[in-house]
Design brief:
There is one protein chain. This protein is an alpha+beta fold. It has one domain: Anthranilate synthase. 32% of the residues lie in helices and 32% in strands. It has twelve helices and 20 strands. A hairpin with a 3-residue loop joins strand 14 and strand 15. Helix 7 packs across helix 12. The protein is globular.
Length: 433
């Protein structure tokens, strides 16, 4: 049972900073921020969940069945993530590549305290057993001043970013991927590479704040689970359920920004007309349509937006919006299981692409290209795609970020490599200065 209280906030932007600063006293924290992005599918401007009452983590074996059980029994808000490697639970696949982060494959928790911000209205959902703490918590949040918000630990550690796959090796691997495509094994695959730093200490909140300020994406997230952190500036929604409507918004197609207004407009126009980028996007839209059809009411799958170009602070992105309707009896976890991992991060056909990806990539993806989000007590959910993200294992002193791109028959290895560097720019800037 939760106690719900609504209060008015004077300055929601400042209040978000206070909330996030206050949350650092807890071991389990999930913060989701739309950064004021004008999105008709958004339910909240920001969401904060802290302090586990119950939690559940597992490896990939039987993971979706166990998650289904946990979500059904809890019948409450649960927040957490699914890593890319849960593909091994859905299909006969494995993940044998190097893993420097060692996150559990799946983690969800039922928070004692939830904060939902929409406009200037703050809605708090506290479990009854901690409801007497609400008044003091709100006072503590309110009394956080600007000095406290911006105060960060001074860490004297020069961060040296290394590449898991070097440039020449990257070209060789893309050529191997192209050989698979020309042979007809796949049409498209998302090939990713890791950038990492060992024996490194960072301030996770400071790093997230800087990354978010550079990118201001609609699906930003800050996850703290004891010594493990996700600092994400994701622009991509994986999947959302609102009532009986399902919405998925795959991104395929990226162009850089320019400070010159006319040139920037031209870059955006060029992206919208780019035959290769459009074909990449349409292939993934077909894949997403097929995935959604597995739980959809017959005839309800619909492409609402095809190859629409959206502008973000760092890049222009080509995004499509696919929707469907589900039956009231359809379990929310089944909708995720039948669409996971996100098509934009795999390829087509999906299983063949994932098999080939595994042989060519050098790093276990883990949480990268997985998803972070929440389920509501009404069986609704909202999940992003974990891209443009920094992952940090504090105990291992290991920092990692990965980037990828879709390889198709028309791919030029040099252009693909350059696109990876564009996507990596914000993360590298934040870590190296």
């Amino acid at each position: 049972m939760r106690i719900t209280v609504r209060t008015s906030i004077d300055n929601s932007k400042q209040y978000k900073q206070k909330l996030l600063t206050w949350s650092q006293r807890f071991d389990e924290v999930l913060w989701l921020d739309s950064n004021g992005y004008d999105n008709r599918f958004a339910t909240y401007d920001a969401v904060l969940a802290v302090e586990a009452f119950t939690s559940f983590q597992t490896d990939c074996f039987d993971a979706f069945h166990q998650l289904k059980e946990y979500q059904s029994v809890t019948k409450d808000w649960i927040f957490g993530y699914l890593s890319y490697d849960l593909k091994n639970d859905i299909e006969d696949l494995t993940s044998q590549n190097f893993d420097g982060l060692n996150f559990p494959d799946l983690f969800f928790f039922q928070p004692k305290k939830i904060f939902l911000l929409k406009g200037n209205v703050l809605e708090t959902h506290y479990l009854e057993l901690v409801s007497d703490e609400l008044e003091n918590d709100l006072k503590a949040i309110e009394t956080i001043d600007d000095n406290h918000i911006h105060k960060t630990k001074s860490v004297s550690n020069a961060i040296k970013i290394s590449l898991r796959i070097h440039k020449d090796e990257y070209f060789d691997k893309v050529k191997t991927m192209l050989a698979h495509i020309h042979r007809g094994d796949i049409y498209e695959a998302n090939f990713c590479q890791e950038f990492y730093a060992e024996d490194t200490v960072i301030d996770p909140l400071e790093t997230y704040t800087k990354l978010n300020a550079i990118s201001k994406p609609p699906f930003a997230s800050y996850l703290k689970l004891y010594d493990k952190f996700l600092l994400s500036a994701s622009p991509e929604r994986y999947i959302k359920k609102a009532g009986l409507q399902i919405t998925s918004q795959p991104i395929k197609g990226t162009a850089k920004r320019s400070i010159n207004k006319a040139e920037d407009h031209q870059l955006k126009t060029n992206l919208s007309r780019d035959v290769k980028e459009r074909s990449e996007n349409i292939m993934i839209v077909d894949l997403v349509r097929n995935d959604l059809s597995r739980t959809a009411v017959k005839g309800s799958v619909n492409v609402e937006e095809l190859c629409k170009v959206y502008t973000f602070d760092q890049v222009h992105q080509m995004i499509s919006t696919v929707t469907s309707k589900v039956d009231v009896e359809t379990h929310p976890v089944d909708i995720i299981r039948t669409t996971f991992p996100m098509g934009s991060m795999t390829g087509a056909p999906k299983i063949s692409a994932m098999q080939i990806i595994e042989t060519l990539e050098a790093t276990k993806r883990g949480l990268y290209s997985g998803t972070v989000g929440y389920f509501t007590p009404d069986n609704d959910f909202d999940f992003n795609v974990v891209i443009r993200s920094i992952l940090y294992n504090q105990s291992n002193r290991y920092v990692s970020y990965s980037v990828g791109g879709a390889i198709t028959a028309k791919s030029d290895p040099m252009k693909e490599y350059e696109e990876c560097l564009i996507k990596a720019k914000a993360m590298r800037e934040v870590l190296e200065g």
